[in-house]
């Protein structure tokens, strides 16, 4: 694993690299849980699920690890894609990432609009 959880100055808990990571290098390969219809509305899930539209999957999914604990940035250093076997989500570096640098994903504008809040 190339990351660890830490007390983030951005939003409570975050993830940071434990080593230098090169652009396009895989940061993590995380399993996910397929959500039953409307289960994303559950208060424990609604801030952490990924829309079925993002990955063109049958249902929305809850990605474990980085999928739950990477904070948002409109200038992220990671992105994600579904693995070819469709059992994992692959997180990869969009640029070089230094050891101890916080790992960020772009949640997308829709995430903020649905919650009625201003992006961080």
Overview of the molecule:
This protein is mostly beta strands and 120 residues long. It has a single domain, classed as SET domain (Beta-clip-like, Beta Complex), CATH 2.170.270. Helix content is 12%, strand content 32%. It has a five-stranded antiparallel beta sheet with strand order 4-5-3-8-7. β1 (3-7) and β2 (13-17) form a beta hairpin. The model has no long low-confidence stretch (mean pLDDT 86).
**Percent range for helical residues?**
10-25%
Q: N- to C-terminal separation?
A: 27 Å
Q: What spatial order of strands do you see in the largest sheet?
A: 4-5-3-8-7
H/E topology pattern: EEEEHEHEEEEH
* CATH class category name: Mainly Beta
CATH fold call: Beta-clip-like
How many structurally independent domains? 1
Helix-and-strand structural type? mainly beta
The number of helical elements comes to 3
What is the rounded Rg? 14 Å
What would CATH call the homologous superfamily? SET domain
Strand tally, please?
9
- What CATH architecture do you see? Beta Complex
C-alpha geometry: globular
Q: Which consecutive residue ranges, at least 5 long each, have pLDDT under 50?
A: none
Q: How large a portion of the residues is in β-strands, by DSSP E? A: 25-35%
- The pLDDT mean sits at 86
Biggest pleated-sheet summary? 5 strands, antiparallel
């Amino acid at each position: 694993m190339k990351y660890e959880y830490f007390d983030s100055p951005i939003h409570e808990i975050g993830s940071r690299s434990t080593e230098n990571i090169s652009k396009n290098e895989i940061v993590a390969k995380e399993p996910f849980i397929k959500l039953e219809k409307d289960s994303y509305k559950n208060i424990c899930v609604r801030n952490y699920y990924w829309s079925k539209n993002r990955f063109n999957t049958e249902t929305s999914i809850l990605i474990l690890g980085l999928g739950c604990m990477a904070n948002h940035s409109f200038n992220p250093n990671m992105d994600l894609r579904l693995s070819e076997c469709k059992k994992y989500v692959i997180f990869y570096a969009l640029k070089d990432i230094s050891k101890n640098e916080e790992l960020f994903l772009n949640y997308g504008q829709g995430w903020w609009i649905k919650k009625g809040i201003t992006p961080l």
